[in-house]
Hints:
Layout: H1 2-21, H2 25-35, H3 39-44, E1 47-56, E2 59-68, E3 72-79, E4 82-88, E5 93-97, E6 102-107, H4 110-120, E7 135-144, E8 147-155, E9 161-167, E10 173-182, E11 185-199, E12 202-212, E13 219-228
Antiparallel strand pairs: 1-2, 1-13, 2-3, 3-4, 4-5, 5-6, 7-8, 8-9, 9-10, 10-11, 11-12, 12-13
Amino acid sequence: MKKLSVFIVFLLFLGISLNTSAQTVDDVINKYVEAIGGLEKISAIKSMIISGTFGGGGMEFPVTISYKRDYKIRMDISFQGNSQISAFDGTTAWQINPWQGKKDPEKMPAEGIKSMKEMADFEGQLVNYKQKELTVELMGKEDMEGSEVYKIKVTDKDNDVTYYFLDTQSYLILKQSSKRKIKEKEIEQEAFYGNYQPFGGVMMAMSMEIKTKGEDQSQKGTMKTVEINPAVDDSIFVMPEVKK
């Protein structure tokens, strides 16, 4: 009887151990969503304006990014009295780049449309990933500069893959890596996130560093102010008509 009791305790312990180790990708993503504020607060954000700086190589430029559901974004980067504009109205991606001598708006190619749409999704790929028709996989745990992280693989409809690295304690994203083909050239990038702070009840990374494989210098972005649900007119995302 005593041996049977010990055996039952052993089985219970084994069951607990198995349940603990059999963590699914949805378990991790659900904890991530809760860690950044929960689905209700995330969904309550309808528009957002972020102001900060972005640059690299010793140069820093003021940047303003305006977002609005669904999939609308406009990014203005100022330098020497001119502004580079990149925008997406949910259908058309366009830009004005005076630094390349182009003062008229022009449409972006197909890869630009996809890139801008990804940027316009301020929720991020992991939130509501099923609605976005994304495939996710939990690749296990890794060590990232002394921090234990979950590695999640996200594959989109075009078979482009993005990896997310979530801290196993806070469940916040510390790193994101991806490969994208742009003009027949494969671009491999890593983005590192830090200094998370709450805005509208949602945790957001105030600092970001982007490293591109094959380039010596990284690019850094710093968020300074965040406005939640400001009035944002749809017209700012629409490509202006080119004056003839």
